[in-house]
Design brief:
50% helix; N-(1-d-carboxylethyl)-l-norvaline Dehydrogenase, domain 2; three-stranded antiparallel sheet; 11 strands; alpha/beta; globular; 445 residues; 2 domains; Rossmann fold
């Protein structure tokens, strides 16, 4: 089966979710573009958008239409060539409207899993629950005579567990988009012990057509991205406890670590802001998934357990705005820190000056926006870290140890065989997490 034949009938499971909707959009555009090629006239391309909620599917169809309009406006010159034989389409607005129609016409929203029984390819972006995934994969596999390929968006579950559990015989691969899929360039590709070469080859071709940056990871729970991120979280929690032992309140410690990890590590957001963005519940569940597969370390946080028990979850609203989590937000700005001991938010205005005093004098850190993507970033970062290396404040010490710990986590991913090399670790953090520099570096050597 050729690349184009494989994409003639596709299903996306969890299509109305945050990840599934992005995968649906990218795949719909790719399929529609294929259908418009001269050699594919008369061929039918079907993309099943499968989810449990009719309301959610209605919402995702509105999302698709709005996003396809943006895509069409950006590539209108290419669309003119694609529709060159349609002499009835004269101005750009007509071409854009026709393209929106053609992409939307590929998509079939449905709540029936049975729609996947005819698919050649199944993308999965459902709940991070291995038992649920295995049950659904098995059901599709047993009822689909085409022996479909499965692309799972899991960010933590070993692919071999899913492969063997559902009896797929290597017709599965981990294809981990980063959030949001339509914007993020990174995809982690993970083969199971049995993944067929042709499945891997197709995955690479599909990623190339989507203009994604591909990083291969070995099939070890958490892979590269969450392998680093979850351990980053655990270290941040350890630092909180150390600061509390030194006299800080828990809210002061959370605010301090968040401030250091954003401003003085030159990251786009602090570690607790990132946890809120992903979701406290999601992070806790990823740790739950990873922990049974790790040796000689505990991937588990009692603090996250406590927060979840008190209903602190984070995440985003449907419009993309941030929900309150460990931190409270107003118009995107942090205005308070949650105190799990008092079960209430403490305004930043009550703790900011105390935290700054306890952290002490710090070298002026470069703004993340001035560094990320800057080809001359070394000229900015080396002098800054030289100053950080010689600074004597408590805040500088926290920042230095955090950089060293991040470096250690990165090297451990290579040593444990999760990543093939240090460059892949850095690429994941640079591309998937928008860090200004990779965790494996020599800035403090």
């Amino acid at each position: 089966m050729t690349y184009e034949e494989r994409l003639q009938h596709v299903s996306v499971l969890g299509a109305a979710g945050k990840m599934g909707s992005g995968i649906l959009l990218l795949t719909a555009v790719e399929m529609a573009d294929l259908s418009l090629k001269a050699g594919n006239k008369g061929k039918t391309f079907v993309l099943n958008a499968i989810d449990v909620s009719d309301e959610g599917l209605a919402g995702v169809m509105r999302y698709l239409k709005a996003q396809i309009l943006k895509i069409a406006e950006k590539k209108v010159h290419a669309l003119r060539a694609m529709y060159a034989e349609h002499h009835d389409l004269i101005d750009n607005d007509e071409i854009i409207a026709r393209y929106i129609f053609d992409v939307m016409n590929v998509v079939r929203p449905t709540t029936r899993l049975e729609a996947a029984y005819d698919s050649n390819l199944v993308f999965e972006a459902i709940k991070e629950d291995s038992a649920l995934k295995i049950r659904i994969f098995s059901q599709i596999n047993q009822n689909n005579p085409k022996q479909p390929w499965f692309f799972t968006n899991t960010s933590s579950i070993p692919i071999t567990v899913l492969d063997e559990g559902a009896g797929l015989g290597g017709r599965i691969i981990g294809f981990h988009f980063y959030n949001p899929p339509a914007v993020q360039k990174l995809v982690e590709v993970i083969r199971s012990k049995q993944t067929l070469d042709e499945v891997n080859d197709f995955a690479l071709a599909y990623a190339k057509n989507l203009r994604k940056v591909v990083v291969p990871a070995r099939d070890i729970a958490g892979f590269i991205g969450n392998g680093h991120f979850m351990r980053d979280i655990l270290y941040a929690v350890d630092v909180i406890h150390k600061l509390m032992d030194m006299g800080m309140s828990i809210t002061e410690a959370i605010y301090a670590v968040n401030k250091v990890t954003q401003e003085f590590l030159v990251r786009p957001m602090g570690i607790f802001q990132l946890i809120d963005y992903v979701g406290v519940d999601v992070c806790g569940f990823i740790m739950f998934v990873m922990n049974p597969f790790t040796k000689d370390e505990e991937i588990h946080s009692k603090l996250l357990d406590k927060l979840l028990g008190q209903g602190v979850k984070g995440g985003q609203y449907s419009d993309g705005s941030q929900k309150d989590g460990i931190l409270k937000y107003e118009k995107g700005k942090i205005v308070a820190v949650y105190d799990p001991l008092k079960e209430m938010y403490i305004p930043v205005s009550e703790i900011q000056s105390l935290v700054d005093e306890k952290l002490g004098a710090m070298p002026a850190a470069p703004a993340w926006k001035s560094v990320v993507g800057n080809k001359a970033k070394d000229d900015i970062l080396k002098p800054y870290f030289a100053q950080l290396r010689s600074a004597t404040s408590a805040g500088a010490e926290i920042a230095r140890e955090y950089v060293r710990k991040s470096n250690e986590i990165g090297w451990r991913l290579v040593a444990n065989g999760v990543a093939f090399n240090d460059a892949d670790v850095n690429t994941v953090l640079l591309t998937g997490f928008f860090h200004a520099y990779g965790p494996i570096n020599e800035y403090l050597d």
